[in-house]
Design brief:
The protein has 137 residues and is mostly beta strands. 3% of the residues lie in helices and 34% in strands. It is built from 1 helix and 7 strands, in the order E-H-E-E-E-E-E-E. The chain has one helix at 45-48, and strands spanning 35-40, 64-70, 80-83, 87-91, 96-100, 105-115, 120-127. The strands form 2 sheets. The protein has a 4-stranded antiparallel β-sheet, with no helix packed on it. Strands 3-4-5 form a 3-stranded antiparallel β-sheet, with no helix packed on it. The radius of gyration is 19 Å and the shape is flat. The termini are far apart. One of its GO terms (molecular function) is protein-folding chaperone binding.
C-alpha cells in the first residue's frame, strides 16, 4: 500500500473529501426543509415522434435539474442561496439545507423563483455535461 500524497502526514487524499463538505455544520440547530428533485429535458417533434436525436426518458438525457424546497413561514428577503458546481446551500432563519447535487451544474446559469402562495422555492439549474452522442448542444 502506497500513499499518493506529497505530504506523508496527511490521513486522506483531497479527492476523497466530497465537494461542499466545508459547509457541513452538524451543530446548527435549524431544521432541514422538505425538498423534491426532478429532471427536465427539452424535446421536440423529432424526439417524440421520430426518435431522431436518440434521447430517452432517463436522467442522462436531461438538461436541467429542478429542485422544489418547501419553506413555510418564510419571506423571500430571508432566503440566502449559494450554488456551486455540485452543491446547493440554502439558509433561512428557520431552515438550512446543504444538498449535494446528483450531477455537476453550471452555477452561473441557474434561476430561482419563490412561489409565495405555496411557500416553495423553485431552483432550476442547467446540468453541465461533457459532449457525447446524446448531449451535443
Amino acid at each position: 500500500f502506497q500513499v499518493k500524497s506529497e505530504n506523508k502526514k496527511t490521513i486522506w487524499d483531497t479527492e476523497e473529501v466530497p465537494e461542499g463538505s466545508e459547509f457541513d455544520d452538524t451543530w446548527d440547530p435549524r431544521e432541514k426543509p422538505e425538498y423534491e428533485i426532478s429532471f427536465k429535458q427539452h424535446v421536440g417533434t423529432e424526439d417524440v415522434f421520430f426518435g431522431m436525436t436518440g434521447k430517452d426518458p432517463s436522467t442522462a438525457c436531461c438538461e436541467d435539474i429542478v429542485i422544489k424546497i418547501k419553506l413555510p413561514e418564510t419571506k423571500y428577503s430571508d432566503i440566502t442561496l449559494d450554488i456551486q458546481d455540485k452543491v446547493l446551500d440554502l439558509r433561512t432563519p428557520k431552515n438550512k439545507l446543504l444538498l449535494h447535487l446528483p450531477y455537476p451544474v453550471n452555477s452561473k446559469e441557474g434561476r430561482a423563483r419563490f412561489l409565495s402562495e405555496e411557500e416553495i422555492l423553485e431552483v432550476t439549474l442547467r446540468v453541465s455535461r461533457k459532449l457525447d452522442f446524446i448531449n451535443f448542444s
